[in-house]
Each structure stands twice: as C-alpha cells, then as structure tokens.
Amino acid sequence: MESYSPGIQKYIEQGRQIIEREQNQRAVMRGRKFDTIAVHGLYDMQAALANQGSIIEPAFMSTAQHFDNSDQMETALAYLMPGWIYARVANPTLHYLEETLGLLEGYGFDGEVTAHLTGSGMAAVFLGTNPFLMNDQAHPKPNIVASARCYGGTFTLFTRYANERGIELRWVREPLNVDEWASKIDEETRFVFGEMPSNPSLAVIELEAISALAHAVNAPFIIDSTIATPALMRPFLHGADIVIHSVSKSMSTSGFVIAGAVISRANIPSKVGPAEMCQNYAMYVKGFPHRDMGPTLSPLNALLTLNDLRTLRSRTDTSSQSALKVAQYLLSHPAVESVQYPGLPDFTGYETAARYMKLVDAAEGDSARFGYLLSFNVRGGSAPARQVFDKLQMIWRATDLGRVKSVATIPMISTHQQISGSDRDVAGLQPNMIRLSVGLEHPDDIIADLEQALADTN
C-alpha cells in the first residue's frame, strides 16, 4: 500500500468522510419514490446550509477550485479525495445532476449505479463505446454488434469506427430477431449496442435475451434509452451494463440545453481495459478519457436540466397518452400508409414494448405507456410526405424531439441525411417517413394540425 505524507493523509480522510456522507444520503434517497428523487436528487438541507441556505442547487460558474494548500491540491488531482479541481474535470452543479440521473436510472435496481455528464448526446455515445475499442494484442480482430435501427449520428459514428480503425461493424437489421443477434456476437465482440425505442423507426429489443448473449462472450451490453427515459424503462433491471442518454431531449424538455449522459452499473464485463474501467465505468470515463478529450457540459445547462427533470414522470405520462391518441388517429387516416408506434397492438414488437416500457410508480393496471415519439409514412412517396410536412401550422419543423412543443422532421433529409444510399436500407429509412415528437399541447389540437396537413394529399 502506498504511503502518503501526514498532510495528504489528512485530506484523504476528509475525502472519505465526504464520500461516506454522500453514500448515506444516496441510501436514504434510494428509499424514496421516483418523483421525490427527481425533485431532490442528492441535494438535501445540509447541502443547502453550506450554500447560504439555497433550496435550489446553485450554479457554480467559476472554472476552477481554490485549494487550502499544496497537499489538498495534490490529493484532489490524484483523485484521492472528491474535488472540483477544474470545470473540465468536475463541477458541483454537474455533480448534483449526475447523482440525480444515477438514482433515477437505478430506481428499483439493487446494484450501484453511477452517472457521468457530457456536452451532448453524441459525446455520450462516443465515450460510452470508444474505450472498448482500445488496441489489445490478445484480441486483435475486434468487432461491434449494433442495431441498425438507431439515430443517424450513432450510425455514422460506428461507420467511422469501421472505416477509420479497421473494426468490423456487424449491423443487426431486425433488432427484434434474437437469432440474428446471436449469429453476429462472438468472442471478438467488444460491445453490443442497441437503441430502444429507436429513432425514428421506434424498433424495440428483447433486452434480457440480448444482454445474456453479450455477457456470454464477456462483452458489455450498451443501450441508448433516450426516448424511453427512466420514467418508462430502466435497462439495468433487464441486464444492461451501460445506459446512454441524449439529455438534450425529454430530460431537458424546455429546449435550452444540449447534454448527454453515460450511466453504468458496477462491475461490467469487458475483454479489454483496466480493472477500474470495469469496476466503475462512468467514473473511469469521467476521470480519464473525458478529462483528456474535454466534451464538458456547462454548469448552467446542468442547472436548467435539473429544473426540467423534476417533472419527468408526469410529463412523460401526459405526452405518452397524447402520442397514443395521435398514433391511433394517423392509423385510421387514408393518406397514411403506416404508423410506427410501440403502443399500437399491430406494431411489430408491441408485446415486447409492453413488457419493458411501463410508467414508473403508476397505479396497478394503469402503467402501459409507450413514449412521446412516433413516425408515420405518407402514401405516395417522398413528394406527398414533403407536402404534408410543409403544410404543418402548429407542429414545428425541426430536427429535435422530446420538447414541450410538438416537433416533426423528415429523417431522410435531416437526422439521417449523412447515411449513404445503401446504408439507408440497412437502417430501415424511407423517404416518405415523418417523425413526430408529441408535446404537451392538447392532443386534439395536434390532430387538427395533422388533419389539415393531410387533407388533399396527392
């Protein structure tokens, strides 16, 4: 065991006390309900008294931390005690949000869960996957197995991994087909990646079956759960090792923030990397790759997200019920060719979605919710779809989702435009698909806007 000077030992002990207090408060909050966690996180009365009594988490905007002396500086920068250090490494406001996200994603899960914030959702996808692709002579031919039904940025990032690093990329075209996953996962698979529900096709995955396949070859199962949020689905309960979120979406629903999160359970599997990476992946990413790469979230964005996050469950409940009503309307419209929404009984994967997606802490028998996102295909191809899109009067035309305001886009010309022609078929994209993120407007008004836009489609 390494020996330290008395001065450093003093701060190591001080850090131990800080960690112990947070562990105790974390244990208290794990006994609370979901909404209570979303409102309070780890910020309690004792923390407030240390911040001039503020009952709302303060925004620490300074870039750097002042230290008592050289011993405390050395101890903190060696990660031997909790410290702010420098805003690219850590920040108290970000810490409040990270703790809240970890508690929400770990709600009902027996193991330890840790969260790390990034400057965007794509930064979270990168940091949630890139460390598993390190060179390792014991495993010289790495491959990635991932659902092709994923966000366009994720699709192009993984394609870049393959093209620039010589890593074999194995797309799963039908993510609900467990046999297809099994045929592509092997001893050289570095990670298995899925998105549920996927953007924009709303595809779902048999989480428990795929996690078992990944674990059988000592690979982590990584799931992007942005659309579901922990209000509807918590993948750690079903075998996932790492959960990715674009916090920019429904967690920061007001639309002011770009942010991401990498959330991990303790002791994940991996055939590469140091022991500390597997023991606490989110904190490993925070302390090392993120520190050196610098995709950092601003404290103000963290505070804005904390404020929005407090109402996550109730907002998700309302928008999910509205989305179902909108999807049912679209399904009956003669100008609509198909509707992709997990809450429709005829949707492929409906039964799977119903098992995994449930409103947290809902009354017994009233938990079925399927989220706010849907997509629909307009009959006649690209031209009629663009005509409908251009006629929208209240629903915003933008490449965004998860907002209090309803937003629509055509994925082929926006979120997935960078995907090549041949890969668009792999990703399941069609030029007549419109993605609709249902907001908190009254559903009758959303339907009325769709009705006038779909009228006289040719």
Question: What's the arrangement of secondary structure elements?
Answer:
Blueprint: H1 6-30, H2 34-40, H3 45-49, H4 70-77, H5 92-105, E1 113-118, H6 121-129, E2 143-147, H7 152-165, E3 168-172, H8 178-184, E4 189-195, H9 207-216, E5 221-224, H10 229-232, E6 242-245, E7 260-265, H11 275-279, H12 281-287, H13 289-293, H14 299-309, H15 312-331, E8 336-340, H16 350-356, E9 373-378, H17 382-391, E10 396-397, E11 407-409, H18 421-426, E12 433-437, H19 443-454
Parallel strand pairs: 2-3, 2-4, 4-5, 5-6, 10-11
Antiparallel strand pairs: 1-7, 6-7, 8-9, 9-12, 11-12
Helix pairs in contact: 1-4, 2-5, 5-14, 15-19, 17-19
How does this model look, in words?
By secondary structure, the chain is of the alpha/beta class. Helix content is 41%, strand content 13%. It is built from 19 helices and twelve strands. It has helices at 6-30, 34-40, 45-49, 70-77, 92-105, 121-129, 152-165, 178-184, 207-216, 229-232, 275-279, 281-287, 289-293, 299-309, 312-331, 350-356, 382-391, 421-426, 443-454, and strands at 113-118, 143-147, 168-172, 189-195, 221-224, 242-245, 260-265, 336-340, 373-378, 396-397, 407-409, 433-437. The strands form two sheets. A seven-stranded mixed β-sheet has the order 1-7-6-5-4-2-3, with helices on both faces. The radius of gyration is 23 Å and the shape is globular. 48% of the residues are buried.
Share of helix, binned:
40-55%
Rg calc: 23 Å
List how many beta strands DSSP finds. 12
> Mind telling me which CATH architecture of the largest domain this is?
3-Layer(aba) Sandwich
Question: What is the third-level CATH name, the topology of the largest domain?
Answer: Aspartate Aminotransferase, domain 2
Low-confidence stretches: none
Span of the ends, CA to CA: 76 Å
Category by helix and strand content: alpha/beta
Q: Strands across the major sheet, in which order?
A: 1-7-6-5-4-2-3
Oligomer category: single chain
Q: What is the tally of helical segments? A: 19
Domain module count: 2
CATH superfamily of the largest domain, by name, is Type I PLP-dependent aspartate aminotransferase-like (Major domain)
CATH class of the largest domain: Alpha Beta
Shape: globular
Mean of residue pLDDT? 96
Strand content: 5-15%
Largest sheet features: 7 strands, mixed
